[in-house]
Structure formats: structure tokens, C-alpha cells
Write a structure and sequence with these properties.
The protein is mainly α. About 45% of the residues lie in helices and about 0% in strands. Strand 1 and strand 2 form a beta hairpin.
Length: about 300
Amino acid sequence: MPRVLRRLLRRSRNAGARSAAGAGARRSAHKERAIAVKATRSTERLMHARHPARAILARSRAPASATLPVTLLLLIVAAAGGCRRDMQDAPRYDPYEASTFFKDGRASRHLVPGTIARGQLHENVAYYTGKSGDVFVDALPMPLTRAVLDRGHERYDIYCSPCHDRAGTGGGMIVQRGYKPPPSFHEARLRAKPLGYFFDVTTNGFGVMPRYAPQVPPDDRWAIAAYVRALQLSQHATIADVPEDQRATLGSAPVTAPGASGAGGRENVQQPIGGERTAGGGESAPTGGDRAPGGEAPPEPSHGD
């Protein structure tokens, strides 16, 4: 065989061996890369489960083209979390707070002219103001019942008695502790005032007295006014104020003076309406112009021997 042919044959054999070895090397490299990728993914999952921050840092080391979508997603999530606002941090203005949005610098705004808030359509002016025009009304806008007086009594004791006391004389506990004393409801000036006046004062306040409209609804304010009138009558009632069919019951329970016994004791006397018990146990003369039937003051008790 010529030398040239032998050389060509040797070269072809060497080339075949090299190609076979290269293919095997390529297969081995491919398997190694697949194993490495699986190991990397397993490591990332483990790191994400145990240390999320480290997993994100490890992913950031990958090529920019592969991490760009993940980075954008993380930025969007972070921005959405930063925009979250709790209810206690809601954007709002407190009453009387300043504002740069409005020209007058006030955050509190007046109602738009001509608008009425829900439940604030007060068509019955006398019921909500106690006035008919500019004159106070002197009649309840509801039937006067025992339930109304009981409700007024309850509300009066809660809101009014701390200053006016429970009898309406103006000597409540707050006054005893230094607050300016209010006038007595039993003054002639206030006894002549109509019911609408007391409703108006309860609604809007007067002098150092604050308004009670936010705490006391209109029905209860009228009930309080009715009870104030009952207090005034209780301290200045006369026999003429008692219905005729009930006057007889006033003399059915005579009051015996202390120490009276048998015929030699003190005579029984009738208890006058509005009278006060004296320190000795007897009855004083009626106050506020009270008179016994016939217009005369009740007789003084006589003493036996």
C-alpha cells in the first residue's frame, strides 16, 4: 500500500476517534449541567423556605435578562404595600383644623345653601324651636301623660339636677362646689315663663349654662319642660288647683301633733298643701301664698292642759 494511502487511513481513524470522544464529552457535559440546574433549583427552594431574603439575593446574581421580570414584580408589590393606608390613618381633617385647599384656610365647611341633611327637615317649627314666630309657645306639642312626666323627671335628674337640684331651687351639687348658681324655678319671673322658654334654654343654653341639644332629643326636652312646670306647681299649689272630686281625699288623713293623746292631747289639724314641717314636728304656714279653703290660713294647733 502506498505511503499516502496509509497516511490518509490513519488520519480518518484518528478523526473518528476524536469525534466519538467529543460526542461522549458533550453528553457528559449536558448531564452535568442538568444535574447542576436541579441542584441549584433545589437549593433555591430550600433557601426561599428558610431564608426568603437570601433567596432573593441569590436570584439577583443571575443574568439581568432572567431577573428583570422578577425584579419588576417585586417593585410592584413593594409599591402596593407602601400605598396601603389603615383606617386610623385615613386622610381627614379634624374639626376647626386649618386647610390650604380652601381660600379661607378652614377645613370645616358650611352646608351648601338650599341643602338639608338626612333627618333634619324640621317642618314643625314650634316643635323644634319652642316658638311660633318670635313668641314662645305655652302648650306641649304632645299629649301630657304620666309617661311624659316620668320621662321628664328622669331626664331632669340626669341633666338638670346637678346645677338646679331636684327641687329646682338652684342649689345643686355643682353649685355647692363653686359653679355659678342658676336662678330658682320658683321665682315669680320664671313661673310666668311659657313652656317654650324652658325648651329654648335647654336647646340653646343661657349664660353659663351650655346647650343640651346634642345630648337630649326634642321629645325629652319637652318632657323636661313639662316636669319643670310640675315642679313649680308642686311648690305653689292651692286648694283651687285640686280637682273638686279629689279635694275630699285631702282631709281623709289628718296629721296629729306630737304628744297628743286622748281627749287631753293636741287637736288634729289638716296638713296644708305645700306646707313644711317645722323642727318641732308641727306644720308651718303654707308657703307661696297657700291658703286653706275659704282663703284663710289654717288654724294653729291648740294645746290641752
